[in-house]
UniProtKB/TrEMBL annotation:
Converts 2C-methyl-D-erythritol 2,4-cyclodiphosphate (ME-2,4cPP) into 1-hydroxy-2-methyl-2-(E)-butenyl 4-diphosphate. Its cofactor is [4Fe-4S] cluster. Residues 258-344 form the IspG C-terminal domain. Pathway: Isoprenoid biosynthesis; isopentenyl diphosphate biosynthesis via DXP pathway; isopentenyl diphosphate from 1-deoxy-D-xylulose 5-phosphate: step 5/6. InterPro entries: Dihydropteroate_synth-like_sf, Enolase-like_C_sf, IspG_bac, IspG_bac-typ, IspG_C, IspG_TIM, NO2/SO3_Rdtase_4Fe4S_sf. This is 4-hydroxy-3-methylbut-2-en-1-yl diphosphate synthase (flavodoxin). It is an enzyme of class 1 (oxidoreductase). Its EC number is 1.17.7.3. It holds the Pfam family GcpE. Keywords: 4Fe-4S, Iron, Iron-sulfur, Isoprene biosynthesis, Metal-binding, Oxidoreductase. One of its GO terms (molecular function) is 4 iron, 4 sulfur cluster binding. [4Fe-4S] cluster binds at C261, C264, C296, E303.
Length: 349
């Protein structure tokens, strides 16, 4: 279904706008300096929206100072206490996420809605399988996709009663299939933009894979307007993983994409240090480009030609490619340096 457009500060999501990559700070929000430092690192990594946990009044008040020091839109993450949402809005946040499973009576939500409307900021209905309302959990016994969808429906009825439509929806679970099913139904039924995520996905490796599978299925079906890859790791990795998912589906073209072969018995150079070195040096490039690092002449030249830049290794040496053409052959010891000389000569960063 065509999605409404929602503005979160200067970032617009929904109806054809780029799918925004977001993350969440892992500091205590009231530790203002540490939080600002982390947000600045996220900004440098390309993060487009950042969410902060608001656990108490000090967190809610700290948002004002944090807001003054960063330019990325801020989202206050609220559970249990509607008054924290009111204070966060007062502090100038660009969006509020509330959990309908634990925010309490309707009148509390109404107060948040009235304040958000006054300030023209959207609210995310952030349904989470781990904290569904008791009556719905009792009905379905497990936080399956039906329970997630019904929680969203109930919340939307409430928002509808107060005629508030500046809404983003999420319905996250740790179970990939349930989450995919829930988002698929919600996408069909409602025109509000969707924030996608697999919650509690795990550490970088497993979490990245589970998020890649879940988000990948949905995004490929045209579902999703902003994504957060939840990892038990440095939040910068969430941003990198988010762009990697979007780049791999051709939905965004952000930063360099490294293609490297898995390496096998045909390879006659030390490929792993070459790949690590290329990966490290690519971090300073912001614009989209494909760089291929291939271990031998079987698939190497083909892949290297298809990429914007590439190397295909031979015995103790390698050929360097630029825009589909072999440029030069050099010794293994200067292969990476030569690749980056060629990139810098031919790439507009
Ligand atoms: S490119 Fe060559 S070295 Fe790399 S996996 Fe393929 S055959 Fe093996």
């Amino acid at each position: 279904m065509k999605k409404r457009v929602v503005s979160i500060g200067a970032v617009k999501i929904g109806d054809g706008h780029p799918i925004a990559v977001q993350s969440m700070t892992k500091t205590k929000t009231r530790d203002i300096n540490a939080t600002i430092r982390q947000i600045k690192r996220l900004e440098r990594a390309g993060c487009e929206l950042v969410r902060l946990a608001v656990v108490n009044k000090d967190d809610a008040l700290a948002l004002k100072k944090i807001k003054e020091s960063v330019s990325i839109p801020l989202i206050a993450d609220i559970h249990f206490d509607y008054r924290l949402a009111l204070q966060a809005i007062e502090s100038g946040v660009d969006k509020v996420r509330i959990n309908p499973g634990n925010i309490g009576a309707d009148w509390k939500l109404k107060k948040v809605i009235i304040r958000a409307r006054e300030r023209h900021i959207p609210i995310r209905i952030g349904v989470n399988a781990g904290s569904l309302p008791g009556d719905i959990l009792k009905k379905y016994r497990h936080p399956d996709s039906r329970a997630l969808v019904e929680t969203v429906e109930h919340s939307l009825e409430l928002f509808d009663k107060f005629d508030f439509k500046d809404i983003v929806i999420s319905a996250k679970g740790a179970d990939v299939r349930n989450t995919v099913d829930a988002y698929s139904v919600i996408h069909r039924k409602f025109s509000f933009p969707l924030h996608l995520g697999i919650t509690e996905a795990g550490p970088s490796f497993t979490g990245g894979i589970r998020s890649g599978v879940g988000l990948g299925i949905l995004l490929h079906r045209g579902i999703g307007d902003t994504i957060r890859v939840s990892l038990t790791a440095d939040p910068v990795k969430e941003v990198t993983a988010g762009f990697e998912i979007l780049n791999s589906l051709g939905l965004r073209k952000t930063g360099p994409v490294l293609i490297s072969c898995p390496l096998c018995g045909r390879c006659e150079v030390e490929l792993m240090p070459i790949v690590r070195s290329v990966q490290k040096r690519l971090k300073r490039y912001k614009n989209f480009m494909k760089v291929a690092v291939m271990g031998c002449v079987v698939n190497g030249p083909g892949e290297a030609r298809e990429a914007d830049f590439g190397i295909a290794c031979g015995k103790g040496m390698g050929a360097v490619f630029s825009k589909g053409r072999e440029i030069k052959r050099v010794k293994e010891s200067i292969l990476v340096d030569t690749l980056f000389e060629v990139i810098d000569e031919n790439f507009d960063n």
